[in-house]
Amino acid sequence: MKVLKGLDTQGWLKLVFYPLILLFNLPVGWVKALWSARVLLDGQWEAYMGFNPRNALNSFFYRTQWFNINKYGRTGVSPVVGLGEYPLSRWFHLSSLSSCFYANAGAVSTLLGCIIWVFSHLVWVGGVDWLWVWLITFTLFFSSTAYAMAFTRQNYNMLGWMWLPLALYFLLHQYWVLASMVWLASSIASITVIMLSAPLLVFYAFYTGHYEAFLVLLPGVIKILLHLRPMLATGELKVAITNMGKLIGLSKRGVRYKRVSMRWGAFNLYFSLLYLAVCFLLWWRLGQLPLLPVIAFVLFLINQLFIRFADDQSVIIFFVSAVTAQILMMTPGVVEWLTFWLAVSPIPIILGVTEASDGDGFTKINCYPPFDHSNIETGFNEFFAEVPSGSQVYFAFKNPRGEYERLFDGYRLSIELPLYVAAKQGVHLFPDWYAVAETNYEGAPNCWGDELAEVLNNIKEWGADYVVAYRASGVGLDKSWLSEFEVLSKFDWADYSAELRGELWREGVPVPELYLLRLL
């Protein structure tokens, strides 16, 4: 981690004692964040997709999905997604209910979902020492994991994860029907919860001999299988599953965009060592294998290193949920509580809770008021104002040269809002993530290139009417471009630097200025 370089004595002390310092900083951070979130009580939830600008702007990916489902229907074909004429039946993994709620109340979804997730553990009161249950619940609430899930990391899946504590409680107490009903509720919000829960239940059934656990997910699985009906009707099932398999790394044959981040980077190494240590400590204190945390840890490793079937935050919340259930079943003790605190309160900077680049990254908790994107959305409305509905607009990005992590040239977090605004105006702006899926095979047609010759060739090849090009803010387009294109409008992200709170652009990625161009 870069934050380790050049640390002074104070920085090293913060690293060593970060668990103790966080005991004071996290409650203060929560109080500040909740106080700033009171603006949500005034309504207008659609203006706040999140709290952290990075997460909020990236979450327009989900608002675009809901816009298309709502406008064209789940069996419809969208002219503004992918390469155009995109069958929406391929979105079998989406829940209409959670998509609608998250698209119109993003910040409320993650905050409320996280609070429900945490305090659902109070269901254990009465079954074990009630003081222990309250202590563990509040420890989880004031953890860096819960803070990150509420304010910086989560998306619509939080509406599914908030059911997991109840599901695990009913599972561990062999209330099979109730467990089945709760997992069904979670499946209505998120397919990811079911995907991660399935292997856990299989191993739990074999390990404990409670084979009823095999049937617990049946209603939820049937509900998800019903999502496949539109694809069966349109013949899109094979294409959708093949495309998804390639994107998550399940299939590597003939894949055009290959992932290179599924390796032992700082993030994966840190969490692997932390969670492995937690599993060993629990094993030592229990005197037997802590089944749920171990299974969750194995799934974390598979997801991070082999098959990317879930986001980072999903496997993190899954592991923490498993550890919490395990801790609540154990005899209360100081070592047990310390183990739990270490598990649920990783270093803030690695969870994206702070952007501090020095020793403060180990202990500082940033306050994230709800992020109002209205001005930026208005700016993009004006940016596309001269583009007629039904037009094709080519977004000129550098060729990623077959590397998944190079897609969109470091600007992946900032493309979702213009994609949403364009779609809302009936404009097809491409490439997007669905175009990536549609061209994720060797020999696929090229939709990349930001050099003038490449752009001219691509707009001819794809029949685009307009071009969106970008340069570092203040640099401007070369004269050669102005001899081929007319500049219709500009959008400079630097004009919104105060609203973005310095969160959007990483080191080495210049603040972009966008140009809407029309061929002369």
Describe the overall structure:
This protein is α/β, with parallel strands linked by helices. It has two domains: 2-42 and 92-362, no CATH class; 373-519, no CATH class. It has helices at 9-16, 18-36, 53-58, 60-72, 96-104, 106-119, 130-141, 144-153, 158-161, 164-172, 176-189, 191-208, 213-216, 218-225, 229-234, 237-248, 266-286, 291-305, 312-328, 334-344, 348-351, 374-383, 416-424, 433-438, 452-462, 479-482, 497-500, and strands at 48-50, 77-78, 86-87, 371-372, 392-395, 428-430, 466-472, 485-492, 512-519. It has a five-stranded mixed beta sheet with strand order 6-5-7-9-8, with helices on both faces. Strands 1-4 form a two-stranded antiparallel sheet. A hairpin with a 7-residue loop joins strand 2 (77-78) and strand 3 (86-87). Helix 5 (96-104) packs across helix 6, helix 10 (164-172) runs antiparallel to helix 11 (176-189) and helix 17 (266-286) packs antiparallel against helix 20 (334-344). The longest helix has 21 residues, at 266-286. The chain is globular and about 75 Å long. The model has no long low-confidence stretch (mean pLDDT 93).
